[in-house]
Amino acid sequence: MLKRLDVWIWALAAIVISRLVTMALVPLIDTTEARYGEIARIMAETNDWITPWFNYDVPFWGKPPLSFWLQALSLQLFGLTEFAARLPSWLANLGMLALIYTLTLKLAGQRQALIACLIFATMALSYMMSGAVLTDPFLALGTTLSLAGIILSLKQPESAWRWCLFVGLAIGLLAKGPLALILIGGPLVLWLIWRRQWHYLLTIPWGRGLVLTTLLSLPWYIAAELKTPGFINYFIIGEHFLRFIDSGWQGDLYGSAHKQVYGTIWLYWLWATLPWGPIALILLTWRWIRSKRLNPFTKQKLSDEQCLLLLAAIFPSLFFTFSGNILWTYQLPALAPFAVIIAMLVTPATPATRLTRFITSTSTAFMPVLLILAGIYSYIDPNKFNTEKVLITAYNEHKSNAALPIIYIDKAPFSARFYTRGKLTQMTLPELKTLLSNNPRSSYFLSIANNNVDSIVSSLPAKVKVGLKNKRFTLLEVTSVGNAVQNLN
C-alpha cells in the first residue's frame, strides 16, 4: 500500500509540474485570456492598483482586481511572458490541491486524499484553469477555502478553520464579486434545510467573521467607486443581475453575451469533469442497478460532511440552470467538492482489479497528455490559433528603430496589445489614407484582417510589401510612393 501511495504522489507531482511546461509554450490566445493578460500588463506598467484598465483610457468594471493584482505582480517580478502571467493561477490551483488533500485526509484518510487530488488535477477544466490568465481559479480558491472551513469546523467547532469561511468569502469577493456569496452560502443554506443542523450556526463567529470579510474586501470597492464613479452600478446591477436574467444582455461594455439554451450548464458539467464525471455516473448507475435500491450509494448513508460536499458539487449547476448567459468555467468551484466526494464514496467500493487499475491510470493520464500535445502543437504552429505573437515578433524583426508603432486597421486584438506592450496604433481606413497622403516617402507597418487585404491594398496610395500571414491578419509594410506589391525579404 505504501509503495502504491508513493506512485500516486509522484504521479500527482508530475501532473502538476507538467502544466508549467504548457504555460510557457502556449502563446496568449484571444479573446478572454489575452484580454485579462493585457489588463494585468497595464496594471503592472502604470502601477495603478485600484482600477483595472481595459485600455489606457477605459476602466474595466467587469471584474474585481485580485487576479490582476497577482498577475501584474508576477509580470513585474518575472517579466512580460506568458509564463509569468499564468503563474498565479497555477499557484491558486496548488492551494486548492492543498485544501483538497487536507480536507479529505481528515474525513477519510491518506489514500482517499491522494485520489481526490489526482481526480481534481486531471479533470478537463481544472487542468486547463491551473495555467490560464483568468479570474475563475481565484474564485474557486475562495469557495474551496470556505467549504473546507465549514466542514472542518463541523468536526472541530473551536478550531481556526471556522475563520476560513470568512477569509474565503473575502477572496471570492475580490476575485469575482457577490457571486461568491451565492456559491458559498447557497450550499450551506440547502444543507441546513436538508440536515436540520441549525445549531451549527451558533458555532460560527458571525459578527467578528463578517467584520473580517468586510475589512478585507470592502475598502477596494469604495476606492474603485470613488476613482471611477459608475463602477458599483455597472458591476452589481449589470454584471450580477442583468447578465444573469437576460441571456441576450446588450449592456456588456467589454464583450458580448454568451447566449445558451437554459440547462446548458449541466452539459458544461460533463465537459468540465471529463473524464471523471462520466466515469462516476457510470459507476454509480452500475451500483444502483446491482443493488436494486433507490439509493445510488447502496447501503452507505451520507454523513453531514458528505451531504454538504454533494450540494457544493451540484450547486453551480442548479444556480445557473435558468441562466443562458454562461460559460463552462462557471463549473470550476464545483470540481473540488466533486473530487472529494467521489474519492470518498466511489473509489473505496471499486475492486482493485487489473481492469480498474488500467481504467484509472488511463483516465488520470488522458487530459494532461491531451492538453500537453495541444500545447506542443500550438508552440510549433501558433499561426493556427487566435494569437498575434508571431506576427508581432516578425514586425519587431523587420522594423527600424525609428519606425512608428504597428498600425491595426480598426481594432487590434488583445494579444497584439500585450505583445507590443501597448505600443500600437488603431486607425480607420480613411485615417490611414490621410496619413499616407500627408507623409510622402514614409513607411509604416500595417496589420490588416485577411479578408480585407485585397480591397485595402488596392485602394492605398502606396507601395506595399506583403509579409507574414497568420490565421486572422496579414503584416504589411507600406511606403507612400505607389501601388506596387512585393514580398518582404
Task: Describe the 3D structure.
The longest helix is centred in the last third of the chain and has 27 residues, at 354-380. It is globular, with a radius of gyration of 26 Å. The chain has 2 domains: 2-380, no CATH class; 389-487. It has helices at residues 2-25, 32-46, 66-78, 82-107, 110-121, 124-129, 136-155, 164-175, 179-195, 206-227, 231-245, 264-272, 276-291, 304-319, 332-345, 354-380, 389-398, 414-419, 429-438, 453-459, and strands at 53-55, 58-59, 406-409, 424-427, 443-449, 463-469, 473-479, 485-487. Strand 1 (53-55) and strand 2 (58-59) form a beta hairpin. The chain is of the alpha/beta class and 489 residues long. Helix 1 (2-25) packs parallel to helix 16, helix 5 (110-121) packs antiparallel against helix 15 and helix 7 runs antiparallel to helix 8 (164-175). 61% of the residues lie in helices and 8% in strands. The protein has a 6-stranded mixed beta sheet with strand order 4-3-5-7-6-8.
| Helical residue percent band | 55-70%
- SS field, number of helical segments: 20
**Major sheet strand order:** 4-3-5-7-6-8
Classify the beta-strand content into a percent band: 5-15%
Number of strands: 8
The largest sheet, given as strand count, sense and whether it forms a barrel, is: 6 strands, mixed
Q: What structural category characterises the helix and strand content?
A: alpha/beta
The average pLDDT is 88
Silhouette: globular
Provide the succession of SSEs: HHEEHHHHHHHHHHHHHHHEHEHEHEEE
Number of domains: 2
Using only CA atoms, what is the Rg? 26 Å
Low-confidence blocks of residues: 482-489
Termini separation (Å)? 63 Å
